Amino acid sequence: MGALVLGIGGYFVFKGCARRFRPELRYFAHTRRGHLLNALGVAGHVGKGIALVLVGMLFIAAAINHRAEESTGLDGSLQALLDYSFGAPLILAIAAGLICYGIFALARARWGRM
Question: What is the CA radius of gyration of the chain?
Fold first, then answer.
């Protein structure tokens, strides 16, 4: 399960960096709003992908250690990040990415091609 979640997170990061989401929003192609939605799409997909990668890593760590109580999900992985010096800025970046993904998803739901 952890490898699957990790793979999905990696795909979201790849999809964001490679801008593979652009065909979903042809309505805004070559417009100012299209450039904004491209930026939101990149930041959103990468942020969501990083969050999923963290959850997948926690699932894998719990399976290796034979401690199911360690696989707490997204809230647990973000809480575990706070133990590191770079944790708070990384959590803020993930939060900003998830907000961007939410705005992107709303635009895709309204004008996108499903």
Answer: 16
67 Ramachandran zone, left/alpha/beta (phi>0; psi -120 to 50)? beta
Amino acid at the residue 68 = A
44-99: pLDDT as tens digits: 999 999 989 988 888 887 788 776 665 566 777 777 778 888 888 888 888 899 99
Q: Is the dihedral of CA 79, 85, 90, 95 positive or negative?
A: positive
Instruction: Please state the pTM of the whole predicted model.
Output: 0.80
- Comparing CA positions, the residue from 31, 35, 50 lying closest to residue 90 is 50
- Could you tell me the CA-to-CA distances from 40 to 9, 56, 66, 103 in Å, in that order? 17, 24, 39, 7
